[in-house]
Q: What sequence folds into this?
């Protein structure tokens, strides 16, 4: 079973205004390193998932920006959602694309705006999660929360 990563790169850039704006939201800015957040996310999994098995879900207005920042990802793997319908819609659309390409695929969903300091530990956890998913289970990776938050 091949592993595909769906990178969620949606959002309009309103939360980090004025740095992040509608023409270039935070996922397409270099906020945490020399690379943009979406580039960091793709690079984080490059040893596990090749670029041809990355799918990027973003807004229709950001398809060209995503393609420019991720030239190794095939253009047809960059999904431009016509309107903001939330994460579930983007995940569903990405899952359909992946299923059409590879019905037996294991899909990993990643957010383009997460800060992951220990990439080796993340990749080890991701690899372990993939092995469990290959057995037919749904797996969620996360961190221990340090405060309540109702936004997720």
A:
């Amino acid at each position: 079973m091949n592993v595909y990563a769906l990178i969620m790169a949606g959002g309009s850039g309103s939360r980090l205004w004025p740095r992040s704006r509608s023409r270039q939201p935070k996922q397409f800015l270099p906020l945490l390193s020399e690379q943009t957040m979406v580039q960091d996310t793709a690079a984080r999994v490059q040893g596990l998932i090749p670029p041809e098995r990355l799918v990027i879900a973003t807004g229709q207005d950001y398809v060209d920006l995503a393609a420019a920042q991720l030239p190794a990802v095939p253009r047809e793997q960059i999904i431009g959602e016509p309107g903001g319908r939330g994460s579930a819609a983007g995940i569903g659309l990405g899952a359909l694309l992946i299923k059409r390409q590879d019905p037996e695929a294991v899909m990993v969903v990643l957010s383009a705006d997460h800060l992951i300091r220990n990439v080796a530990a993340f990749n080890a956890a991701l690899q372990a999660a993939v092995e469990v998913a290959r057995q037919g289970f749904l797996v969620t990776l996360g961190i221990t929360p340090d405060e309540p938050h109702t936004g997720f």
